[in-house]
Amino acid sequence: MELASFSTPESPSSPSPPCYITSGRNHHASVSFVRCLHQAKAIVHDLESLRRSIVLEDPSVTPQLIESIQTYLDITYSKFVRLCKTLHIILRRMHSQYYINHERFESFKLDITTEWKRVSHIHTTMANLLQRALHRVSSTSSLTRNHHNNHDNNNG
Fold first, then answer.
1. CB contact set of 19 (below 8 Å; sequence gap of 6+)
2. Can you give the pTM of this predicted structure?
């Protein structure tokens, strides 16, 4: 992604004003925005890696582990949503103050929306998997406790 290339209007009669890099502040704002956008993409990548690597069928999986993963997932998702909302606000301000041109605005907006959809899908998928695993693990441990209790009652 080219950070410092801003387009200028085709002709003097273009409806939108030119988007020049007129100061270090404008360039810094764009670079900072791109860094935050990459941070959002890194969060999505981390959650995708977690989703691919998680093994909930293992007998050693406990309800506490599942709840810890769910807590991490929920906190990470909430932070991601806040980050995306903030990125949308900053993007609109940058566009309204002519720090970026309309094409770049639309491209960044699409990037944010795409990552938001991806993370929402991951969150929903993982929450469903975790819920099923918690139900399965809780049922299994309940059956095991009942079996042990019945066995102890029969022997005592």
1. 6, 7, 8, 98, 99, 100, 101, 104
2. 0.70
